Amino acid sequence: MAAAAPFAASSALRGAKNVPVGLELYSVRGELAKDLLGTVAAVGKMGYQVVEFYAPYLEWTPETARSVRKVLDDSGLKCRSTHNNGPSFTPDGLKKAIELNQIVGSTCLVMASAPRATAIDDWKRLADQLTAVSAQLKPLGMATGYHNHQVEWRPLDGKRPMDVIAAGTPKDVVLQFDVGTCLEVGADPIAWIGANPGRIKSVHCKDWALDRGYSVAFGEGDAPWKKIFDAVEATGGVEYYLIEQETGATSGGELPMVQRCLDNWKKLRA
Fold first, then answer.
1. 85 Cβ partners below 8 Å, 6+ apart?
2. 131-176 pLDDT, tens per residue?
3. Cβ atoms of 88 and 94 closer than 8 Å
4. What dihedral do alpha carbons 203, 209, 214, 218 form, nearest 10°?
5. Is beta strand 50-53 parallel, antiparallel or unpaired with respect to 21-24?
6. 236: Cβ–Cβ under 8 A, 6 or more apart, which residues?
7. What is the rounded (10 degree) CA torsion for 157, 160, 161, 165?
8. Among residues of the chain, what percentage have pLDDT more than 70?
9. Average pLDDT over residues 80-85
């Protein structure tokens, strides 16, 4: 019973903690491609507090980034992190990523997925890369992180890649937790959070259901959200949540879908 006490206490205090809710903008990628600034403003108008841009942002000019920052400020939004592919982690790409992130106010460059990895040593090398990037970013008051998908939960040579990444990186490397992919593979989200205290600084709140996959809106799938909230707030060190829903374009529209997800969020957090 004693072990459950922190989670019970967190449940009572959750409303007071008021962890901000944001949107992973991949959820509105079609709208974003048509109207970058207008879509960001629309997300802010809905009531989201945080946004996370994804890899194509690296193509922006500094002038574009400054225009985005103005819309963020005018809309009451914060960009706390960005999702990045391989080009952001090359020497020249990292310089540009740092510049753009600093303009929009982001302090965390999250690696959105791993390069092709076929052996556990590949994952160890990935951990070494994240460690090196972390050392470069730390003097700037910035950090890096890693975002899981399904493959990181499947044992390889007897070890789960996610465990290798966690063990092989310093604690200031964020373990951004994608909930839906963890559930799909059958991993235990609460056990993962408990094993990595203080490192789950952001959570991708992507729901999943056995019968409908990722087509479900946030809060309408199989994820045990209240238990997850309790765990990441009591133990994981969460600083902000990011709703992600990838099928809005075929489910009534991307913007209506992310509004529906936010409505469900408010009901769950009431």
1. 55, 58, 112, 113
2. 999 999 999 999 999 999 999 999 999 999 999 999 999 999 999 9
3. yes
4. -50
5. parallel
6. 177, 193, 196, 197, 198, 199, 200, 201, 203
7. -120
8. 94
9. 98
CB atoms within 10 A of CB 130: 21
**Token pair of 9 as six digits:** 């206490």
The verdict on residue 91 lying in a domain is: yes
Q: What is the pLDDT of residue 1?
A: 34
Pair 109, 82: CB distance under 8 Å: yes
- Expressed as residue numbers, the domain containing 229 is 18-205+225-241
Higher pLDDT, 210 or 11: 210
Mean pLDDT of the chain: 94
Q: pLDDT digits over 26-80, tens only?
A: 999 999 999 999 999 999 999 999 999 999 999 999 999 999 999 999 999 999 9
Number of domains in the chain: 1
Does residue 216 form part of some domain? no
Going 230 to 231 to 233 to 238, the CA torsion angle's sign is negative
What does 221-243 look like in DSSP terms, one character per residue?
SS--HHHHHHHIIIII---EEEE
Domain at 82, CATH number: 3.20.20.150
Exposed/middle/buried for residue 52 (C-beta within 10 Å: 0-12, 13-18, 19+): buried
210 lies in a domain?
no
Which tokens in the block code for residue 233? 């707030």
Contacts of 102 (CB under 8 A, 6+ apart): 140, 142
Q: Measuring CA to CA, which residue among 236, 258, 149 is closest to residue 192?
A: 236
Parallel, antiparallel or unpaired: strands 240-243 and 21-24: parallel
CB 214 within 8 A of CB 206: yes
Would you say residue 122 lies in a domain?
yes
Tell me, what's the pLDDT at 187? 97
